[in-house]
Amino acid sequence: MKKIIFFIFIILVCVTSCNDLEELNKDPNNPTETHPQLLLTQIQWTAFREFLGTSPLYANKMLVQTDGENSYQYYKWNRGDYSYTKMKDISKMMEEAQKINENSYVALGKFFRAYYFYNMTLRFGDIPYSEALKGESDNIFAPVYDNQKDVIIGILNELEEANTIIENEKAAIKGDIIYNGDTDKWQRLINSFRLKVLLFLSHKESDTDLNVKSKFASIVQSEPLMSGNQDNGQLVYLDQADNRYPEFNSSSFGSGMYIDSTFIKRLQDHKDPRLFLFCTQTKEAKEAGKAIDDFTAYEGGDPAAPYGTVNEKATKGKVSKVLERFYQDPTNEPSILLGYAELQFILSEACVRGWISGDAATYYNNGIKSSFKFYESYAKGLSAYVSEDIVNSYLTNPTNNFSTKLTNDEKIEAIVLQKYFQSFFQGGWTPFYENLRTGYPEFHRIKGVEIPYRWIYPQSEYNYNADNVSAAITRQFGNGNDKINQKTWWLK
Description:
Blueprint: H1 2-24, H2 36-47, H3 55-59, E1 63-65, H4 84-99, H5 103-124, H6 135-138, H7 148-167, H8 183-199, H9 212-222, E2 233-235, E3 257-259, H10 261-269, H11 275-278, H12 283-287, H13 307-315, H14 325-328, E4 335-338, H15 340-353, H16 360-378, H17 388-396, H18 408-421, H19 430-438, H20 459-464, H21 466-477
Antiparallel strand pairs: 1-3, 2-4
Helix pairs in contact: 2-4, 4-5, 5-7, 5-8, 7-8, 8-9, 8-15, 15-16, 15-18, 16-17, 18-19
């Protein structure tokens, strides 16, 4: 009996010691659980800057390079990357939020998932979606590829779910650096982004599975949308380490980066004073004493010419550069994921297409006014060039006056062009996708060079998910046709 008692005692000691040892062996620097607010801040910081930078500006015909051939300028890119690494934090945030019943973080997780998957499917076509990011939870390390239509339907469903969830959440969201926890503003951004996704499906208006037109109208009629610049989905920068404008002190603004001549020419043709906020005068014009608001003081480089030819022009002082504020001001201007100005242009185009009732001209004018107001607020020392009086005068210019656009094509071209103007260092790849969708604005390029429709799938997919990526390529384009000139479903 004593032996049995002693044996039980030894077992209890061992169990207790093992439990204590497990507690001691927990790494405090690598916690298995965390509050979702700690993840949200980094998710927002990354997502709101993810698709910006200089690369899309070359493809969008806003920048040219003079010290080498830029693949984006000449439409010679090949492979792209997936965003799974960034999206893992989103999955973790949603998981932790569900544990403590903090549904606001679940709603934002669905929004950010939709945002990333939307950009991924526009970039590639069919992508892993239904089985994506399930390696840890379901041991799925080679996810199947969903067709693009199903991905888009899933994205729209997630955004609708995000709207439904956050509508019932009134408590401030901790860790939110975009809206300081305001759930109402988040709901407005989510619904406005739903409209953006639907508009990009304008080629699929007749698809009864999507019901693009009726869904768009329903959101406009029954859901809260951004009501002014105060609702902009934007990341404001601080003059603090790791919180500064992403292009601050960037070496890429050295001797080789100049402004595209077609971008400047369009701004000049429209007598658009945002030119003075984006570009420097040419060295030649500055030495001649021309005023900042003299439209003839600006000139760009031909994006279709060999870079050496443009370099020769630049060395003569005849090409404008990016205005210094973009790399010398640590706070410069906020980065906009989706703003009120773009929403107004979305609504204007929807009116032209007959998706909603309303005055397309009013939305168009509101979009321009809100863009000017944004720069009046944030382009330090330059507000006089984009004041209320200036914008009112700008709208009376026949080139900009919406009433002079007689056909639907002319109206859509005008709307898309204004969306293009306000996207300098803001729109990311949106102007490029707008060109693929509408043909506007036309992108000048070397004769015979076609604008790509997509990127080639990542090499990692060929290495670790070969069967599924090969099946997706064959299904979309035919065997072996993973090429940038292949048109994907959303454009057909």
